[in-house]
Amino acid sequence: MPSVLRGVDHRDPVALYRGEKILQLVRKIFGKTKAVDQTFSIDSYYTLYLPHPLLKDASDVPGEVFRNYVFFKTLLESEEFARTRYSTIGDPSLSVLVASLIAAEFERSLEQLQQASGGPDQGEELGEEDVKSIAESISRRISETVETMKSMKRLMSFGSEPGTGTAFDLEEGGEEIIRLAQLADIRAVLELLSRVPNVTGKLLRPYERYSRGEVRGFEIGGDLERVHPSEIAMPKLLFRLKLAEGRLLLYDKVLPKLLGPVYALVDKSGSMEGEKIVWAKATLLALLMRSRRDGRAFYLRFFDGVPHELVRVGRRMKSREFVELLKYLARVKSGGGTDITKAVISACDDVSAGTTREVSDIVLITDGEDRVAASALNKKLKDANCRLHTVMIMGDNRDLRRISYRYLRAVKLSHKEIIQIASF
């Protein structure tokens, strides 16, 4: 069947591929594609992807696709949908996911209408006003989900520099991404994290001097291995004089300082319920962004009365691993007691088992005022070559303050405090 959009050819191989991809996702999300066909899915995609999608004249639209014409005309006239399109224009992956979401919601709306009427399938018998009402409702319902998917894409692509050979495709695992974006817990975490600017791009990576490293600038000294060619061109007597006085122009050469993993140790006890656990999850994702920018491995472990499952994220995280991490965060609920000593010991053991010789950073996020074995923990941290960064949520702990390399108190649970924590 023909498109309701000008310039869109449904016989084009790319259009057919996108349409089939959307139908596959709708079947996974909704279980079936009864009212949505390839014509609808292709037009959904190009309505989102094109900068200025133009509808055909109503008189040129065949009767069998007039329902689609009314639906997309209503969407394109909606201010809510216009804001949604800001995220999808020119983005094929996000356009496929949002088009799949629209098509699944359309299927769901038709089924609900059918059940409410108690009659046969209403797909072909809908009046124009019914179609408009469904389109307006869908436009409102998907707006928050689309913003969450946009935040997920930003996180998935963060740290993937050009030329590294790492590419993140949002269509991979599209069904799971759509389901995650509809979860209230994940939506709250990503909404908070979306207010955190890319501060990691402004942070200077730690360097150490190395005579055969990369050139960072110039300095004065007497190291012949780093001497600038202009000095060698000078008369021998003047060169020897400057060498003796240590006043030669030298290259300042450095190498990025190698660091061990970043280890997020997050309290999930009963007292962390609500805003605290949401803020803690957003903070650990910010730490993940920072570790990826610095090329460091990332460890994560939640704890309450006992340490829970250890999650390892490599220096080059794949999109599937990121989706699995978000699924894991969605499953974590607050509950149980608090044992900080056992959690920190487990973290030190995990770092030691990784056989890293570089300094590692353990970021402990807790609201607990649990008594800790300060002397034992201090020794354990030194043996594992770890620095403890403690983040106390609306509380204080003198023992932890004494043994921590850095001690911070989060009072407002704001995005500004997340920036401060991630900027170590």
Task: Describe the 3D structure.
The protein is an alpha/beta fold and 424 residues long. The chain folds into 3 domains: 13-145, no CATH class; 207-256, no CATH class; 262-422, Rossmann fold (3-Layer(aba) Sandwich). 49% of the residues lie in helices and 15% in strands. The protein has 16 helices and 8 strands. It has helices at 13-30, 38-49, 66-76, 79-88, 92-117, 128-157, 174-181, 184-193, 229-232, 236-245, 275-293, 319-331, 340-353, 374-383, 398-403, 415-422; strands at 207-221, 248-256, 262-267, 298-303, 307-313, 360-366, 386-393, 406-410. The longest helix is centred in the middle third of the chain and has 30 residues, at 128-157. The chain is flat, with a radius of gyration of 28 Å. The N and C termini lie far apart (58 Å).
Percentage of β-strand residues: 5-15%
Structural class: alpha/beta
Mean pLDDT over the full residue set? 87
If you consult CATH, what is the topology of the largest domain? Rossmann fold
Number of helices: 16
Helix coverage percent of residues? 40-55%
